UniProtKB/TrEMBL annotation, chains A, B:
It comes from Sphaerochaeta globosa (strain ATCC BAA-1886 / DSM 22777 / Buddy). This is Cytidylate kinase. InterPro entries: P-loop_NTPase (IPR027417). It comes from the Bacteria.
Amino acid sequence: MSTNVVFTIGRQFGSGGRQVGKTLAEKLGIPFYDKELIAISARDSGLSEALFSNADEKATSSIFYSLVMGNYPMASGALGVTEMPLNDQLFLIQSKTIKRLASEGSCVIVGRCADYILRDMDNVVNIFVHADLKNRVERAVRVYEVPENKAEDVCLKADKQRANFYNYYSDRKWGMCRTYDLSLDSGMLGIEGCADQIISFEKLWRAHKGQGI
Amino acid sequence: MSTNVVFTIGRQFGSGGRQVGKTLAEKLGIPFYDKELIAISARDSGLSEALFSNADEKATSSIFYSLVMGNYPMASGALGVTEMPLNDQLFLIQSKTIKRLASEGSCVIVGRCADYILRDMDNVVNIFVHADLKNRVERAVRVYEVPENKAEDVCLKADKQRANFYNYYSDRKWGMCRTYDLSLDSGMLGIEGCADQIISFEKLWRAHKGQGI
């Protein structure tokens, strides 16, 4: 097994999961990929960033909607794969980018089904960051400047979209304990505490590696 | 806030969650309650251990079944509460025992909705221990001597019963990340590693306490 480790981070909206990943990457001195994946996938494929940005963490729309919008099936096959909804094609391209980045060395990848995409690698630690709604609403207002009277709705809808995306492209369930190796309440530990807890997990995992329960 | 901490541990069957709790309690030098709760609840209430043992982590049967079995509604009101299924009455008695034990000092409590029962206390850390089915089956055969060809079925059915019990008596969902403060894959860390990771969590939580995300 490689001594490199890829940390994937799923997260509830407003839980600070992105910031946990960033702090973890800084502490370990390794690359961090979140929205960065959009630009890299665009560069890898020669397609526009806007295309990836628009599809980011969204499951393919219903076939009916896709037909109406004219993106199912692909009329031109411009992306090299025909008869496949646009979002699915973009997902495949982004998957390749994620696999390439993961093969290049230790890193932190936020969202985008990275845990599922990298399921055949043995040097991946899959994490989920969550927090109670009160804490998330507070953070959404403070950090993302979401209007206070809309913050709860924004959190719940974002989570629903992330769950839909994840459950559509994987055979796992978003937000279930068994989907991840470690899940953490960021309201209990804070951003820095979560990053430290993940570092502790990685050390214990390396010490135990492969010995089962 | 008290400096005492109560650790509650939910667990998939075969994940070694009970052993994680026992190891944690030994490391911290605090009491450990799993099956022990049956004898204590019996002593507290003056009822027989067999009664609690039979109802242990089982949700109330359907009303139809209860009627057939003659335990709904209680004919005699022998337990001091009438018109309530037997298992619900035993659950209430066990809840009182759990609250009393938790109020007496630091301890580890396995299963039995303890996290939900203690939801109004602020010195509780709620943990879920899980592992992939392969590891759990292996452990069930090795530790509980479950026949190899039945082990998978035993694991899945036990989980189903635990989920039913938990979801029936709480307003939370068994096995969902957001139900717990920390969840861990025991196949990644082993028993000892899980206990150490929980101790690390508690330290980071004490340091951060109450500051939100």
